[in-house]
Amino acid sequence: MHQFSTLFLGFAGLLSLLASRPAAAQQATAAPSLASSKTIQPILTGWRFRQVGKDNWAPATVPGCVHTDLLATKQIEDPLYRDNEMKLQWIGHTDWDYETTFDVTPAMLQRQHLELVFKGLDTYADVTLNGQAILHTDNMFREWRAEVKPQLKAGANRLLVHLRSPLNEVAGLPQKYGYNLFAINDEQAMGIVGEKGPVLSPYTRKAPYHYGWDWGPRFVTSGIWQPVQLEAWDAAKITDFHVVQRQLSTQAAQLNLVMTYEGAAAASGPATLVVETTGPDGNPGPRVEQAVTLQPNRHDVTADLRLPNPQLWFPAGYGAQPLYSFKAQLLQNGKPLDDAGTRIGLRTVELRREKDAYGKSFEFVVNGIPIFAKGVNWIPADIFQTRVTNQRYHKLLQAAKDCNMNMVRVWGGGIYENQYFYDTCDEMGLLVWQDFLFACSFYPGDDAFNNNVREEVTYQVRRLRNHPSIAIWVGNNENEVAWQQWGVPEKMGNHKLEVWSNYLKLYRDLIPTVLKTEDPSRPYWSSSPSADFEDMAGSQTNGDMHYWDVWGGTAPISDYEKQVPRFMSEYGFQSFPELKSVEQFTVPADHDIASPVMKEHQRSAVGNPRLKEYLLRDYKEPKDFASFLYVSQVLQAQAIKLSAEHLRRSRPRTMGSMYWQLDDCWGVASWSSIDYYGRWKALQYYAKRFYEPVLVSPHEEADNVRVYVVSDRTTATPATLQVRLLDLGGKVLYKQDTPVQVAPLTSQVYLDVPKAKLLKGHDPKRVVLSCELTASNKTLSTNMHYFALPKEMALPKASISATWQQTTDSTYQVTLKSKALAREVWLSLSQGDGFFDDNYFDLLPGQTKTLTFKSEGTTSLAELRKHLTIKTLADAF
């Protein structure tokens, strides 16, 4: 610890300082004194809104948006119900006013600085205070501040926010720039005017997903989507507090504390920076005091701090996530001017890219451990962002961790998430791949646009850089591959050199320059996918890859196994939600995938026919609508399982698997593994198994069946590998137990058996290969392998017994048993809701399986027995 002496401004010094200042400055600071603390007055109540040109004022909620306020005041019906979204497109073409009044005391008016702060405005806003213009905004992702002391008065003050339509705002911009950046995208899949409306706009700094993707109606929002507050301060305020990790070892962490303050115009004299630390155990740690000489404008104050015997932060599955808290105070005359707090985790992170036999590696190394990234793409959890509660954030991220994930990719078409999201990732050990918010398009390169982006990037990096979970900054989503493979240069004609120059200016120059100043500790990657300009984007030998020939094209699902990238950062397959969820946005008459309402609830250009086409390749025609929904989920889960296991088996050549996507923001057929209403699809349950720390993965290769074991553990694991071939009634046709020593951080074959030796002439349509890895009488991983497509198999109608018992007030256990093979066993309740800790699994003949069920609401054993529904694949046809 470094201890510094504290200097205080004495009474004589204070008189001297005041005497040297202009009279106006003396009057402005006469009361209260220079040592008054910064105060914050929230402005979140009393808001109302109206459609511009009408006198239809109604109560509004801030933070919020126009759509949610219209819904709350019953001016519109639920936008996500049936085809209501088509009736509500006018909202995005309309201007809106929001206003409130707030009181200011005479004492508050005596403060040197009074700043009105908007943490986020969506997006084009003209702000007036007591009839005087104070702000004009054009970026959803920036904090906006205005010095408003001249406009304020004692008593009530009227604040008006005039929100201009984003659609109207960008409509004329192609003419302004002389070329149409919308034209780079396919008119139906990604264009400005697809079949049903506008899509993402490259001209505006607004969440791209608000304009939709692929095709379909969009909810183009406007609103005050972050808090509003009035900040009062005098001599100085803290504008940023950054804890920089200089060196890290098991013996000590050498930290650099950087406090940035802004001094008032006449600020001068001694002050003190005090930083207090709190360890992961909650006990006080080292304390620092640093002398400060206050000056006008913005300045950095630095101090060094040594933490002895630091506890390291690890990604989920590799260790704990200890977090250290820091509180910085800026003092003058012994009184606080301002304070700031932050929390960090101590770890090293590296994106290792070294030449090897396959090209160039792409792997994250944390605390010296090469991490296979097991994860998922994250999109905003609601089209109306302020509806996402902390509880919902926590539930979704907990689901990721519970399913053995260690990374989430914040996709560049969404938003920079809120503080709670990143705090939770810190606590859970979920690494964050953070895209900057540019997606599937090219952007202007004029000074005004780039300056706007520079402010955005600087603000967001400063806001997020203390989070240990953030592992990488990435310039954009799919813009580089769009240039190389989507025919963009041809579409841009004579402007192609200008467009590409603008691209380089933004992602190769501007953003890296900001990062070099603000956060040089983390890797930066210019685009996803990319090979850092060393190869084609999406190369299998260099950089990361997005793969969409399966689903986006018509390639067979088996083509997933032809992709061996260095890191798969995006791939996906669609399914429908289950019937309970579909019933929340439909009526029974809509229950056909070809119905108008079901078509509207589809976010893929190729849509429902593509899903049915893929389904019928592997499965028989489902017997009814509910069965189609169920089989679509099984198909999605099987497709992603095939790819995820292949990627994990390909370690260390491949070091990442992040499927698209965890959650859904619309309540539709989507690529998500958890539906909009929070229900786990089959894929989420599958992910828990295919992302296990130790995975057994049988795979047919030529004439052999090779049984791989993939381990993410950092130490060797002695285990027993059991392989059995059974007929559908449970008769064991082949069995082999093999003791194995599973090597750490590897993928290896531990059993290689000729397929003919396994089958011994048995009908491949009537058998199942069961693989189980156990250690110390505990099952580490199980997996099944089938030798025929589901539609080719003679699956029996399984009769499954279910025995219930209650363990707590809301927790129960159900034990299942079947005499015949039951594939894709799905448990649900015909009435009520709750959560089964496992689902969509295969139950072997004679096997006993016990699940835990957590009830949502009041229930009883009698009700559970009555309402339990068990469905298997054989029941769906």
UniProtKB/TrEMBL annotation:
Pathway: Glycan metabolism; N-glycan degradation
Biological-process GO terms, alphabetical: carbohydrate metabolic process; glycoprotein catabolic process
SUPFAM superfamilies, per the entry: (Trans)glycosidases, beta-Galactosidase/glucuronidase domain, Galactose-binding domain-like
Compartments in which it is found: Lysosome; Secreted
PROSITE patterns: GLYCOSYL_HYDROL_F2_2 (PS00608)
UniProt key word Secreted: yes
Transmembrane stretches, start-end: none
InterPro entries named in the record: Beta-gal/glucu_dom_sf, Beta-mannosidase-like_N2, Beta-mannosidase_GH2, Beta-mannosidase_Ig, Galactose-bd-like_sf, GH, Glyco_hydro_2_AS, Glyco_hydro_2_cat
Ranges of residues in domain Mannosidase Ig/CBM-like: 704-792
Secreted as UniProt keyword: yes
Domain Glycoside hydrolase family 2 catalytic, residue spans: 363-523
GO cellular component: extracellular region; lysosome
One Pfam family this sequence matches: Ig_mannosidase
Stretches assigned to the Beta-mannosidase-like galactose-binding domain: 47-226
Listed EC numbers: 3.2.1.25
Signal peptide start-end: 1-25
One GO MF term: beta-mannosidase activity
Domain Glycoside hydrolase family 2 immunoglobulin-like beta-sandwich: 237-347
Family assignment from sequence similarity: Belongs to the glycosyl hydrolase 2 family. Beta-mannosidase B subfamily.
Function as written in the Swiss-Prot or TrEMBL entry: Exoglycosidase that cleaves the single beta-linked mannose residue from the non-reducing end of all N-linked glycoprotein oligosaccharides.
Subunit and partners: Homodimer. Monomer.
Name of the molecule in the record: Beta-mannosidase
